[in-house]
Amino acid sequence: MSDVLFGNNNKAVIKKVANRSFHSNKKRNILAVIAIALTTFLLTAVLTIGFGAKNTMQYSQARLLGSQADALVQGMTKEQAEQLKENAMFEKAGIQIGIAFLENTKQLNVELDYADETLMEVCFMTPSIGTIPKAENEVLVSANVLEDLGIPKKAGETIPVDLKVDGEIEHFDMKVSGIYEPVKNDVGYVMVSQAFLEEQEEMVSALRKDRENRNYYNAHVILKDPSMVEERIGEFIRSIGGNPDDREAENYVRIAPTPSATQSDGNLVVWLAAGVFGILFMFCGYLLIYNVFDMGVTNDVRQYGLLRTIGMTPKQVKGLVRKQAMYLFLIGTPIGVLLGILLGKGMLPAVLQMFVAELGEKNVVVGSLPYLPIIIGSVLFSALTVWISTRKSAKKASRVSPIEAVRYVEQSIGKIKERKHVKGALLPRMAKANVQRNKGRMVLVIVSLMLSIILLNSVFIFAGSFDEEVYVERQMRSDFAVYTAEAGLMQKGFTGHSAALPDNVAEAVTQRPGVKNVTKMYRNTFEDSQVSCDWGINYEVDEEVTEMTGFPDNIKEGKNKKGEFIVESHAALTPDGRPLGNVYGVSDSLIDKLDIREGEKDKSVLKEKLQNENGIILIAGYNDKGEFTEYSEADYVKQQVGDQIQFYENGVPTETFTVLAKAATTDMETGSLLGPGSNIQAEIGGPVMYMSEEHFKELYEKPSLFCVLFDTEKEQQQEMEDYLSEYTTQKNMDILYQSTEKLGANIDIYKNAFLLIGCLIGGIFALVGIINLMNLIMTSIVTRRHEFASMQSIGMTTKQLRRMVMTESLSYVLRAGVIGTVVAVILGVAVVKPLVESGFPFWFMTFHLTILPAILLSIIYIVLALIIPMVSLRFLNRQSIVERLRTGE
């Protein structure tokens, strides 16, 4: 090398020495490979889970939305749509035309559309049976359409299509060319061919003339660069003659970015989380890798000293240590990457279970994983960690003095205070002095043990704070709710009498053993438009909004004339120009579960007045934290206790009802948990009114049973759960149910996912601490074997030696256990508690402090701290005292 006097190149000699030194340190090599593999494994597993979950959630959300597009562009002309499809800005652009809804379906809302092949791919409509339509009479259909119409699920079948054109029914017999499985069962599609579109151009124009935009070409687009979606598409639309800014303009083109496209911080969150975990894992890896190499240098200090005596320079010694580290890196990193990917992929489905309740199990499909970025990131991370961890050890090896190294015994680092008086037993004092020989190493081992205690305890505090009772209580105060499947459908919902729960079903369910507190909830629908009400606020028809609501022809959207701020500043208006009203008829038993905010608070009196007088209770909801706020107060639409609400039938005044009280209740009691179809409440607008079941039946000619709520005796609850599960999945699939047990099961999914990930990471940190402790004790015994032999030669027994080393070992874990538990409690109160109480990221949490995981882990450490010295000393004592004294010389 260049630093040798005559400039001879001795790289080959250094390589040979490094190879031989590498092969002679099997114990060090095994520990170092484990350390490097663990470090790489940690980040690889987390990156695999993180990116896998992110991709899967994006894909699953796209399935839930029914489109993978970055944006929906609506209301273009045919020429504009062609220009958009050809523009290089878009990776994919699928064209779609919404034509009409079928008139001959039974329960399902079915839309007749045209879509090109690209849109079918983007919107998950690729046929699983048959092919896409080509001929004029061919159609692609979703499987649920055939099920609704009772047609066999086979290509080539004939499907009747009835469309209402200018008030007349047009009938077509179409041939099923292909079938696809829908991502959502609440709406169905029949997709026609280009040939049909061209042949029936006049009919399509007639069907579209009353819809929101005469220019009826729509596009689902995926951009090559999804940044600033709305701005860039808007600029393009202006360039082809569209107007994305003015809704009143004739050339208005609507641009609707999908939620995933507007969540620009998604990648930032992933990278931020990866950065936090990366720093944590790097520190964990540093503790382990540095400790292994530092003790390896301590073990081999005589070897480095001898190499220095024969002319090896400090720079060459550093290179020797780093070359060995590189060998270990090349062995450990692939193992860590492979295990990390395998475990990450294995854990991914379990992690995704926490999202099933929100997305639906059918829509949670594991997406593809970006393996190359994961592998590259993990390898670079591991390389950086190894380089940082071995720098100090390499420098320490290069500074070894040749003379001192030959007779090296580890000395105390730091200043030793002299004491005139010594009290206490000799062995504990010797153990304490030995532990404090190298305070840096002592701190390193204690910190590595503490980390797992703090992490695991914090994970259990957080997971233990998931509160099933709070989650259920804020959504449902009855044990069970039974309703029809149609009530939860997005396009239909509880809009007509057909969605009502049959009386015989309600009776059959509520007559079972143990049922109590039965509540029948009736509510009005769009078909009850002959009955209207007036609560003193004037509304005017908003034709523009009415066109987009999907209301029946005789229902209009009304806005408050005064323009006052009210949460529900709109109302669905009946033919007589008055609000339809959100009106419920309820049984007495529900009143007991209401939170009365104002008015008559004696519930027995309130029940009596509801029955014997024309009384009404106004209903509002809580926020996610279960609090009643000013925003909730606004749900009453400025109505006060004592105000009167006048009802009309076909424009003629009938009954006048008085507001007896204002109350708050949970989502289920207003139908919000029934499914997307319950949005009729928000569409109708105005205050939510509860009246007695009897008065409701007097007002409405065809009262519709919205749902039945009931409780059961505790011993019969599981029996009822099993009965309803079987009934709704096997005997009557038109009926659905909700229960506190089903809601509570969602919390277990969240809790188990956090525990699984937290315990895995915490367990690996614990393993790191144990390896560090084991390595420290074993290295200490090896480097001090001459010292131990000297003490035994002057009278120390094997039992005393064992006690001393076990005391040293215990001193590490006891300090780690005490300090770790205290820090875990402090972090729990200072960090986890405010996080839980803030409602982020989950509102259904109640802080519960625990130190049980910290105590249990400390006990495990104590047991291992007693076992490791015993095993290590047994191997040491195989040599006689004389042999060890000679080895020292």
From TrEMBL:
Residue ranges occupied by any ABC3 transporter permease C-terminal domain in the UniProt entry: 276-396, 761-877
What Gene Ontology molecular function terms does this protein carry? Answer: transmembrane transporter activity
Record Pfam families:
FtsX, MacB_PCD
Q: Which residues form a coiled coil?
A: none
Query: Which keywords does UniProt give here?
Result: Cell membrane, Membrane, Transmembrane, Transmembrane helix
Chief location: membrane
* Subcellular location(s) of the protein: Cell membrane
Q: Does the keyword Isomerase apply?
A: no
- InterPro entries per UniProt: ABC3_permease_C (IPR003838), MacB_PCD (IPR025857), Macrolide_Exporter_MacB (IPR050250)
Its GO CC terms? plasma membrane
Q: What topology does it adopt in the membrane?
A: Multi-pass membrane protein
Q: Does the keyword Transmembrane helix apply?
A: yes
Give the domain of life.
Answer: Bacteria
Q: Where are the transmembrane segments?
A: 30-53, 268-293, 325-348, 368-389, 442-466, 753-777, 812-831, 851-876
Indicate the family of this protein: Belongs to the ABC-4 integral membrane protein family.
Q: What protein name applies here?
A: Efflux ABC transporter permease
Organism, as annotated: Faecalimonas umbilicata
User: What lineage does UniProt assign to this protein's organism?
Assistant: Bacteria, Bacillati, Bacillota, Clostridia, Lachnospirales
